[in-house]
UniProtKB/TrEMBL annotation:
Catalysed reaction, written as an equation: alpha-D-mannose 1-phosphate + GTP + H(+) = GDP-alpha-D-mannose + diphosphate
Species for this entry: Lacihabitans soyangensis
Superkingdom, natural source: Bacteria
Protein name as annotated: mannose-1-phosphate guanylyltransferase
Keyword hit for GTP-binding: yes
EC number: 2.7.7.13
Phylogenetic placement of the source organism: Bacteria, Pseudomonadati, Bacteroidota, Cytophagia, Cytophagales
Amino acid sequence: MTSNNFLIIMAGGVGTRFWPFSRQTFPKQFHDILGTGRTLIQQTADRFVGICPNENIYVVTSPEYFEITKTQLPFLTDDQILLEPSRRNTAPCIAYASYKIAKQNANAQIVVAPADHIILKEEEFRNRINLALDFSSKYDVLVTLGIKPTRPDTGYGYIQFDDTDVNEVKKVRTFTEKPNLELAEMFLASGDYVWNGGIFVWSLQSITKAFDSHLPEVADAFRIAQKHFYTDKEKEALDTAYPRCRSISIDNGVMEKAENVYVVLSDIGWSDLGTWKSVYENSEKDEVNNVIDGKAMLFNVEDCIIKTPKDKLVVINDLKGYIVAEFDGVLMICKKDDEQKVKEFVSKAEAYGKQFV
């Protein structure tokens, strides 16, 4: 571990597709979704023990999540919890944290990780991160972890790499964002595509140079604001900087345009836990493939995920392939195959009161 290693945890999202557990007031990164005893954001920080010192961890989130972030990661100082005045996707989020780190350490090596992913093979994950850190410390590169695909999933972005490259860190050829099923099947069959896991590694110099080249308005906004970071004028500076930034992901704004992008192929037991189906796939199941988190009496129930309050007994009869989820005043019963309708449910639930979304 070196004092030059920094971690940026992106924790500002709401995770609508995991409603009713993920809410505006309590999004999924602050839940212990898989019953491990640690929330997703705590698990994210835990993975970097031995790689990054606690004082070099920065969490970018929304003002309404300051207290819960402080509670769940009590080692953070107030200056390590970065509060975005508005959501502008991942590029401004990463820029804010990067320019703040720059005031502390011009030689920083940075890992960017979402707060809501799970990684089952944690030792291999650390090996992959250390490999990427070593590579990015030697060259002007932007590195991403490419996840070995297990199915032709249309919900992920795909990275094509140079399969003639014999090195462990491979040159990226193309990015394709969320292809249709036919393309996804072709990508899987070709063997030279991996999922974009949204985990990035680079030097401070490389990422600020990339912002200058590809998102100059973002670079200018945060360079102006930077002189007020770590002062009582930081919030005011951010309120000026953020409206100057369009809402754009780091993938679209930088990675797809840059010529110096590399990928570390990674088989790390990764999932973004973005949907109920992904939670189902990553949870232990009973003998008839039910995932149960709560007190449940089941009769002729198969292939279901049941997540309900611990103090409530739920009785279910004759159900197959459903999500049964209750949290904080909302009960949702939905076919697993219809989980894409959850966003629609959320938009309509607001009519019953903001407390339900």
